[in-house]
Amino acid sequence: MFLLCLSFAAQAAEATSPESFLATHNREAARMNQTAMTVLLGWAVLNIGTGTAGHFVTKDETRAFWQANAAWNVVNLAIAGFSLHGQATASPGSWDLARSLSEGQKMEKLLLLNAGLDVGYIAFGGLLLERGYRTDSARLRGWGKSLLLQGGFLLLFDTVLWVLNSNINSRLTARLAPAPSGVGLVLTWP
């Protein structure tokens, strides 16, 4: 359904001027990333709440799992909060072509970096889990399981968001052509 909405927005933008297309593109990209950060914020709040409650009603491995979920998501809460604040104070509708391209590329690179870190989180979770079984440590097993879950969610989240950002950015770069002087780029229009 989300991709269908993006498709309709793109079709509506095609019927307007290049400047309007750029402003619409930027607002659409910002809205998509704002929605994603709202999802991350919800995930963080859910995990902090369930992790805190789980800490008080469980013990041993399960308690360690809930503790790690709550602690891990304090970071997610901060990331989502700062990102939402930054997006709320930005004015993407006024960005020029260079800034639009720069912001899109920056976001894609950040998401790819995050996906690489997520793989590291998953690997570290597997290491903790294995070490917990080898040393009979309920705490390490719980922490390892939590990292596997959190890293897996973040890998899926960052990968999907990277694909969505790549798609929306490719609609902009598909309209670029060399400037008549051969130096620079121009946003082309049908």
How do the helices and strands line up, and which of them pair or pack?
Layout: H1 2-14, H2 18-57, H3 60-89, H4 97-135, H5 138-173, E1 176-178, E2 185-187
Antiparallel strand pairs: 1-2
Molecular structure report:
- The protein has 190 residues and is mainly alpha-helical.
- It has five helices and two strands.
- Helix 4 runs antiparallel to helix 5 (138-173).
Classification by helices and strands: mainly alpha
Rg is 21 Å
Which series of helices and strands comes N to C?
HHHHHEE
The percent range for strand residues is under 5%
In short:
The protein is mostly helical. 83% of the residues lie in helices and 3% in strands. It has helices at 2-14, 18-57, 60-89, 97-135, 138-173; strands spanning 176-178, 185-187.
Task: Name the features.
190 residues, mainly alpha, 2 strands, 3% strand, disordered N terminus
